[in-house]
Amino acid sequence: MRIAQVAPLVESIPPTKYGGTERVIAALVAELVALGHDVTLYSTGDSRTEAHLVPIVEEALWRSNSKRDATMLHFTELAQVVKDASEYDVIHSHLDYLTFPFARQSPTPFVHTLHGRLDLPELQGLYDEFGDAPVVSISNSQRRPLPQANWLRTVYNGIPVEQVPMGHGKGSYLTFVGRISPEKGVADAIDVALRAGIPLKIAARMPLDGVDNAWVKEDWDYYREHVKPKLDSSLIEFIGEVGDEDKYNLLKDALAMVFPINWPEPFGLVMIESLACGTPVLTRPFGAAPELIEHGRTGFLCHTIDEMVSYLQCIEMIDRWDCRLEAENRFSARVMAEGYLGAYTAVTNGSSTPIRPSLYPIELHRDAVPA
């Protein structure tokens, strides 16, 4: 099958450090090529890929020294893709709703993966208008705000699990991996560590510099008011942004990853990366978390900081090989690629009957918090 993959231009494929969507695209492209498909990647010139690369910009916009209009550049990218559309059997876009008007002009069918949050009120009218766009969710919970969308199927994100080292928690510390923002809950992770008296290593991307919008300002306010004052403790080590090798070494030696999200997380790639390392996850039962973490088997789903501290007393009850096997069986790059190949076949056959799984596929059983 001739497949075009359309990636965001803000980061390279794969990313040098932080970048969940870009990491997923890299894994998908590599697996599709390994399966014998002819894949073309529209991305940045500093991307590294097994596919045919069509560079739209010289380097990732986040690393560019000049301020450039990202929306305009993505429009240019999409115009190029539609111009080339007849060369492909299917086009897979990771640019969200920006692609929808372009896809209507294409002779080749599109599949759209939605990587972000969908609980924004302005999206209701958008998906009323573009109800014909075949969209893929990365978790069942992600769909809830937009039942009217043309959901083709859910395909969980995947990673090359075989490249991830298995660990045994010998470091006797906790870790947090993500970015500094209120929804990711790093301040709560610090509180968990301080109350439990266990060291915490934080591998987090700082809020963006030079970006003037309300979300980035909120992230900086959160860091200054709630995170920075807590970094003085000898139990807390702030490492900063890390690449894959350092991240996996950090995760595999941790007792647990603490991921106290405060929002409807669409997926949470670091949770499956942690499982691949054999490391259980302490998180809140929001968004996709109950779909990824099985309470009492691969981690614990906790509403409060006190619950997380309590469950740390029995964290060694979790079999780390169960965590690893969960990643291999459900969240590998091969499983993800097979899911997308099913979506591609559906739209190219013109029979894209939506697969509508239950939005509540896992019943959450929560044991009593240990005393």
Provide the descriptors you would attach to this structure in a database record:
globular; about 15% strand; alpha/beta; about 375 residues; six-stranded parallel β-sheet; 12 helices; disordered C terminus
What does this protein structure show overall?
The chain is of the alpha/beta class and 371 residues long. Helix content is 32%, strand content 16%. The chain contains 12 helices and 13 strands. It has helices at 20-34, 70-83, 100-103, 123-129, 186-196, 214-227, 244-252, 269-276, 289-292, 305-311, 320-330, 333-348; strands at 2-6, 38-44, 52-57, 90-93, 110-114, 134-137, 150-154, 174-179, 200-205, 236-238, 256-259, 281-283, 299-301. The strands form 2 sheets. It has a 7-stranded parallel β-sheet, sandwiched between helices. It is globular, with a radius of gyration of 20 Å.
